[in-house]
Amino acid sequence: MSIITYDKLYAYQKRALEFIAKKKGKALIHIVPGGGKTLISIHLVLKYPALMPVLICCPSSLKLQWKYEIDKYFPDCKTIILNGSPSIHGISELHDAN
Predict the structure, then answer these.
(1) Is 11 left (phi over 0), alpha (psi -120 to 50) or beta?
(2) SS3 per residue for the chain
(3) What's the pLDDT score for residue 45?
(4) Which residues of 36-59 are buried (b: 16+ CB within 10 A; e: fewer)?
(5) Can you say whether the dihedral through the CA atoms of 23, 27, 31, 36 is positive or negative?
(6) What percent of the chain has pLDDT over 70?
(7) Confidence of residue 57 (pLDDT cuts 50, 70, 90)
């Protein structure tokens, strides 16, 4: 279970969680650095496991930090860090969401 429980999240973090859940996981989180986006994302998956799998896109400099945080709060979750171009991972083309 998470080290920081849902009831200890700030009100704006809970509102973000509920908003994302209402949108069935199809939302972006725009909160200032240090505002708890990682915790919101992890709690989202803990509260709504049907949203799995999850893809986290972030700058290369933050990939290991995300893995560390996921492993800390969600130790049973399998995490994979991708490096390099899409073709290395067998992705032949990227599709626009529109």
Answers:
(1) alpha
(2) CCCCCHHHCCHHHHHHHHHHHHCCCCCCCCCCCCCCHHHHHHHHHHHCHHHCCCCCCCCHHHHHHHHHHHHHHCCCCCCCCCCCCHHHHCCCCCCCCC
(3) 80
(4) bbbbbbbbbbbeeeeeeeeeeeee
(5) positive
(6) 81
(7) confident
Tokens coding 68: 């560390």
Asked whether the beta carbons of 51 and 42 are under 8 A apart, the reply is no
In this predicted structure, which of 19-33, 38-52, 81-95 has the lowest mean pLDDT?
81-95
* Residue 44 predicted with pLDDT over 80: yes
Give the Cα separation of 4 and 2 in Å (integer).
5
- Interatomic CA distance for residues 55 and 52, integer angstroms: 9
